[in-house]
Amino acid sequence: MQLLDGKLAAQAIKEDLKKKTSALQEQGKRSPHLAAILVGTDGASETYVASKVKTCAEIGFESTLKRFPSTISEEELLREIEELNNNADVDGILVQLPVPKHISDDKVINAIDPSKDVDGFHPVSVGNMVSGTPTFIPATPYGILLLLEHFKVETKGKHAVVIGRSHIVGTPMSILLSRKAYPGNCTVTICHSATTNLKEICLQGDIIVAALGQAEFLTADMVKEGAVIVDVGITRVADASKKSGFALKGDVKFDEVAPKSSAITPVPGGVGPMTIAGLLMNTYNAYMKKQ
Ligand code: GUN
């Protein structure tokens, strides 16, 4: 069994981006610049955004974190996005989701200039991805592709089973794995809450991407011998023995699935670091398109 170590793969990508950023600075150019918007004080969102900002600093990217109380009006938030759209020194914009209920996700996503849409959620980015001319691929599926590439996982002709149909992970992942490209060229089945024979389908999967957000959902009896397992889940489960008071659990019951698999991502340290690597790659690409 091979551990698909996301920390290791992300480190290689970060080192490459750091070198490229140093080279830009030596030419007297500014660094790529990511602006992140965080609304409210959700613990998980705080952690994700802090990690994105910290990683920018590590590789020499500029970053701006704009924080707003959960009482900010939709109108005001849209104005803030417009300001970042018009700021020529900002290459990438992300609004950490979820936003409070009185604010429309769609309006927020649609407000971002597609040339700065490093999350890849804007309909223009989605359309470009579906029509085979991707501009920005959502960071998590992009990170998973980079991970499969880093570890040279064979994907051509394989049956990939994607569990979960979210716009952030499952849906783009299924499109990308079916593309005529590497990593890709898979036969893809996308499963969701209305799938009636999930176990049977999973047992056919050469590659399983578990992205449903239910802790330890995928068990050994659902996985065929030698499958490649990609675990996107990160659910916080109460754990008094941890300083933080919680443990992070993936969507895969790692201890029993790992021995059956040929390769598997750990949680934490698998897809998580790769999501950030995908975001940084998108930010670098947004910057380069303007040069
Ligand atoms: N919330 C959960 N995942 C993501 C993500 O990839 N980007 C943003 N902006 N918010 C998220």
TrEMBL record:
**Enzyme Commission code:** 1.5.1.5, 3.5.4.9
Positions contributing to NADP(+) binding: G164, R165, S166, I234
The record ties this protein, via Gene3D superfamilies, to:
Leucine Dehydrogenase, chain A, domain 1, NAD(P)-binding Rossmann-like Domain
- GO function terms (MF aspect): methenyltetrahydrofolate cyclohydrolase activity; methylenetetrahydrofolate dehydrogenase (NADP+) activity
| Keyword annotations | Amino-acid biosynthesis, Histidine biosynthesis, Hydrolase, Methionine biosynthesis, Multifunctional enzyme, NADP, One-carbon metabolism, Oxidoreductase, Purine biosynthesis
BP GO terms, sorted: L-histidine biosynthetic process; methionine biosynthetic process; purine nucleotide biosynthetic process; tetrahydrofolate interconversion
GO cellular component assignments: cytosol
Catalytic activity annotation: (6R)-5,10-methenyltetrahydrofolate + H2O = (6R)-10-formyltetrahydrofolate + H(+); (6R)-5,10-methylene-5,6,7,8-tetrahydrofolate + NADP(+) = (6R)-5,10-methenyltetrahydrofolate + NADPH
Pathway, per record? One-carbon metabolism; tetrahydrofolate interconversion
**Pfam families from the xrefs?**
THF_DHG_CYH, THF_DHG_CYH_C
Name the InterPro entries on file: Aminoacid_DH-like_N_sf, NAD(P)-bd_dom_sf, THF_DH/CycHdrlase, THF_DH/CycHdrlase_cat_dom, THF_DH/CycHdrlase_CS, THF_DH/CycHdrlase_NAD-bd_dom
The residue ranges of the Tetrahydrofolate dehydrogenase/cyclohydrolase NAD(P)-binding domain are 138-290
Extract the signal peptide range. Answer: none
Query: Residue limits of the Tetrahydrofolate dehydrogenase/cyclohydrolase catalytic domain?
Result: 4-119
Recorded hits in SUPFAM superfamilies, A to Z, give: Aminoacid dehydrogenase-like, N-terminal domain (SSF53223), NAD(P)-binding Rossmann-fold domains (SSF51735)
Q: Which parts of the chain span the membrane according to its record?
A: none
Q: Does Ribonucleoprotein appear among the keywords?
A: no
Record text on subunit structure and interactions:
Homodimer.
Q: What does this protein do?
A: Catalyzes the oxidation of 5,10-methylenetetrahydrofolate to 5,10-methenyltetrahydrofolate and then the hydrolysis of 5,10-methenyltetrahydrofolate to 10-formyltetrahydrofolate.
State the family it belongs to.
Answer: Belongs to the tetrahydrofolate dehydrogenase/cyclohydrolase family.
Protein's recorded name: Bifunctional protein FolD
